[in-house]
Design a protein that fits this description.
Helices cover 20% and strands 29% of the residues. It is α+β, with helices and mostly antiparallel strands. It folds into three domains: 5-59, RNA-binding S4 domain (Structural Genomics Hypothetical 15.5 Kd Protein In mrcA-pckA Intergenic Region, Chain A), CATH 3.10.290.10; 68-133 and 219-240, Alpha-Beta Plaits (2-Layer Sandwich), CATH 3.30.70.580; 137-218, Alpha-Beta Plaits, CATH 3.30.70. Strand 15 and strand 16 form a beta hairpin. Helix 1 crosses helix 2. The longest helix has 9 residues, at 20-28. The two termini are 34 Å apart. The model is unreliable at 243-253 (pLDDT under 50).
């Protein structure tokens, strides 16, 4: 099996730098040593398990264990590493080695005001699958005003929203468990996309701004009783629905 990776990817995953751009600049500036020599090509391929990589004087330790955690994100924190209040601060609650914590990244993002289910993993291939359009993400939304049948149908069929000053038509969505009155409406909505603030913009397009939004399910994995700010170790099978599911461990928080 080819275990080679681009040098830039290795440096980014070390989390020594807060952004990809900072990591690339460090590589090009010769701050990354491979087998004792500076290597300034970010695209250089190497197996970090067979080569000695030193970043800013720190020897890089590679964790080969693949880890998967569900996390219940509170409101008011971001998924951006360079923000003061971000979800990565919660990793200190995990009872795993520090090197293992550094290998974890969240799969996709929730905006600052959205709560609910996030997945952290060290498995890049798994993350790619989860972010794909074959894995459904389900949310609970509360919006202003009464959502009519006609407005709900517009959302289900796909609706025009504005993304980066361009008009984008969303893919068909599932919208169900709709309950409301003239003041507010609650509903569950499931999508397979992940555009920035997509669900908020979908409801705004029918003049019903979102009051609260919580992600409750990714694939087959449900948030259920996991409390805010806490983790639960999970398996690939729990998310992607393969046979022979393994029991998850809940002693990591």
């Amino acid at each position: 099996m080819n275990r080679k990776q681009r040098l830039l990817k290795i440096v980014v995953q070390s989390r020594i730098y807060t952004t990809r751009l900072e990591a690339e600049r460090a590589v090009r500036a010769g701050k990354v040593l491979v087998d004792g020599k500076p290597l300034s090509n970010p695209q250089y391929q190497l197996d970090p398990n067979k080569r000695k990589v030193i970043i800013e004087g720190k020897s890089l330790k590679i964790s080969t264990e693949k880890l998967y955690f569900a996390f219940n994100k509170p409101a008011g924190v971001t998924c951006e590493k360079n923000e003061v209040s971000n979800v990565y601060h919660f990793l200190k609650r995990l009872k795993i080695p520090e090197d293992s914590k550094k290998s974890l990244s969240c799969v996709g993002r929730l905006d600052k005001d959205t709560t609910g289910l996030l997945i952290f993993t060290s498995d890049g291939q798994f993350a790619h699958k989860v972010l794909g359009t074959s894995v459904k993400k389900t949310y609970e939304a509360v919006v202003e005003g009464y959502l009519s049948k006609e407005e709900a149908e517009r959302i289900r069929k796909g609706i025009d929203i504005r993304l980066d000053d361009k008009i984008y038509k969303t893919q068909p969505a599932e919208l169900f468990n709709i309950k409301g009155d003239e003041n507010t409406t609650s509903a569950k909505i499931a999508i397979t996309e992940g555009k920035k603030r997509q669900i908020r913009k979908m409801f705004e397009a029918v003049k019903h701004p979102v009051i609260s939004l919580k992600r409750i399910q990714i694939g087959n994995l449900k948030l259920e009783t996991l409390t805010q700010g806490n983790f639960r170790q999970i398996t690939v099978e729990e998310v992607l629905g393969k046979q022979n599911k393994k029991k998850s461990r809940d002693d990591y928080y």
